[in-house]
Design a protein that fits this description.
The protein is α+β, with helices and mostly antiparallel strands. It is 23% helix and 19% strand. It has two domains: 158 residues, no CATH class; 89 residues, Arc Repressor Mutant, subunit A. The protein is built from nine helices and nine strands. The strands form two sheets. Strands 1-2-3-6-5-4-7 form a seven-stranded antiparallel sheet. The protein binds iron/sulfur cluster (2 copies).
């Protein structure tokens, strides 16, 4: 998987993610460098000695999570963009994830972006807490994102587009926003059918082909009920109202 797609497997990740006990103590680096390559700036940049000395330049980095304090210096020095720092103690509900980000423009601190997983799939809304632009030393910029805690090991990239803003239109036919859907979920409408009936999302011409999966994902995010365990509402063919006269005799422009 890693060799063909560049995306590490769950098994790959299990070898580098620190223990729950260590994560509960504060920020720590996660080094997703899985292949033997001639490279070692992670080791030379860590002044705490948290990365074991390389016996051979091709060695894979070996982190001692008990020495690492999650400072993030190694993130901006790694040419492979292989390092992130996760702080699961950031708040009761959110984790802080520091990631390398080499695109321009850089996000503004305080803005909201979309957190992406390792394959680039949107996962959640993320708040930009800090941006280190790395210009002074010509290093990789580092962006700190506050994200829902359950995605601390999932979000490893970001998109400047804020797909998850309350203003995002979820149902284009009926012009229902994500904020409205969230409000209905907060009020206790926890099935896609209930939300369809109360909001009309999914009753437009497309019969929910776009909004239904998005609403189900939002229900999963808000309630934890997996999309696979939710019931889809009935799809009906797209129809438009027509006058009786059109049925009987047709009209010039039909
Ligand atoms: S986060 Fe800081 S302490 Fe931890 S490995 Fe990187 S440079 Fe060292
Ligand atoms: S600097 Fe980055 S790419 Fe190079 S060995 Fe260290 S983690 Fe791997």
């Amino acid at each position: 998987m890693l060799k063909s797609t560049g995306i590490p497997t769950k098994q790959d990740l299990e070898t580098v993610i620190p223990s729950k006990e260590r994560l509960a103590k504060g920020p720590v680096a996660i080094i997703e460098c899985f292949q033997k390559i001639p490279c070692n700036p992670c080791y030379t940049s860590c002044k705490r000695g948290a990365i074991k000395e390389f016996a051979d330049i091709n060695d894979r980095p070996e982190l001692n999570p008990d020495i690492c304090n999650g400072c993030g210096v190694c993130i901006s020095n790694c040419p492979g963009l292989a390092i992130s720092v996760v702080d699961e103690t950031y708040s009761d509900t959110e984790a802080l994830v520091k990631i390398p980000y080499e695109f321009i423009p850089l996000p503004d601190e305080g803005s909201f972006v979309t957190g992406l997983d390792r394959s680039g799939k949107p996962v959640c809304r993320a708040k930009v807490v800090k941006v280190l632009n790395g210009k002074a030393q010509d290093r990789t910029p580092v962006v700190s994102l506050a994200i829902p805690k359950e995605y601390s090991m999932v979000v490893r990239s970001m998109s400047l587009d804020d797909y998850y803003s309350d203003n995002t239109i979820i149902c284009r036919c009926e012009e229902i926003t994500l904020g409205e859907i969230r409000e209905y979920i907060r009020k206790g409408y926890h099935t896609v059918d209930e939300i369809k009936r109360i909001s009309r999302a999914g009753m437009g011409r497309c019969q929910g082909r776009t909004c239904t999966p998005l609403i189900m994902e939002e229900i999963e995010r808000a309630t934890g009920k997996k999309v696979a365990d939710q019931k889809v509402h009935t799809y009906r063919p797209p129809t438009v109202p027509i006058k009786l006269g059109q049925l009987i005799g047709g009209e010039d422009n039909e």
